[in-house]
Amino acid sequence: MKVIIFGATGMVGQSALRECLMDDRVQEILTIGRKKTEHQHTKLRQIQLSNVAELSSIEHEITGYDACFFCLGVSSAGMKEDEYKRVTYDIALSAGTTLARLNPQMTFVYVSGSGTDSSEKGRSKWARVKGKTENDLLKLPFKDAYMFRPGVILPLYGIQSKTKVYQIFYDVMKPLYPLLKKLNSVITSEQLGRAMIQVTINGYPRPRIESNELKSMIRRLNQ
Fold it and tell me: How many whole angstroms separate alpha carbon 222 and alpha carbon 220?
């Protein structure tokens, strides 16, 4: 399987990259982002782009892939809705549209969030924008597309959040990880990354997948 990862330097992207590097079913990985990761591996190639919404210059390098794990995301705190929409919706749809044209047999996984508003009419800014992003990505002509809706993600194996306040929270809460892992709304970075690979290979009955479903998917693998 050949995989493209957007946002591999963020916490979610780090999770996807780690599991892809460790899984023998993934033969090639291409990361695309404004920065390269520090990883070096025989099956990893990295492309650094100042504008990840504009892929025309690398179309010949992003053809022939089986999956895209779209992990780019920012906090909506302090951002106006049009600005948040530009960095959340516009980039995802631009990348998705290009990839669907070049790779119609691709599986596209978009990491959204618990509470995303599919009606696009709720009070929460981030939930409306994420809901529209999900809805429009699902209209693109991919073989399959899945919208992941994790709640709290617990970073493991040295993975860290780029948002300092979030990382402080994780550091403080680390002693409680064993208890938090039992909650349906909480998923580990390992479970999240493994679930991306799993839905690409085996599919899933529904396009929108909540945290408890992602966890159940991985539990079944471990049985």
Answer: 5
Instruction: Go through the chain and tell me how many residues it has.
Output: 223
Distance (Å, whole) CA 173 – CA 18 = 22
Q: Are 71 and 33 in contact (CB under 8 A)?
A: no
- Joined together, the tokens standing for residue 22 give 């460790």
User: Does the pLDDT value for residue 23 go beyond 70?
Assistant: yes
Least confident stretch, 56-65, 69-78, 133-142: 69-78
Q: Do residues 3 and 28 lie in contact, with contact meaning Cβ atoms separated by under 8 Å?
A: yes
Strand boundaries in the chain, DSSP class E: 2-6, 28-33, 44-48, 67-70, 107-111, 144-149, 152-154, 186-188, 208-210
Q: What is the DSSP string of 114-143?
A: TT--TTS-SS-HHHHHHHHHHHHHTTS--S
Q: What pLDDT sits at residue 140?
A: 98
pTM above 0.70, yes or no: yes
Residue whose pair of structure tokens reads 């396009």 in the numeric block = 207
Measured CA to CA, the distance from residue 166 to residue 211 in angstroms comes to: 19
* Burial group, residue 209, by CB count within 10 angstroms (0-12, 13-18, 19+): buried
The domain total for the chain is 1
Report the CATH number that the domain containing residue 150 is assigned in CATH. 3.40.50.720
**Domain residues for 48?**
2-222
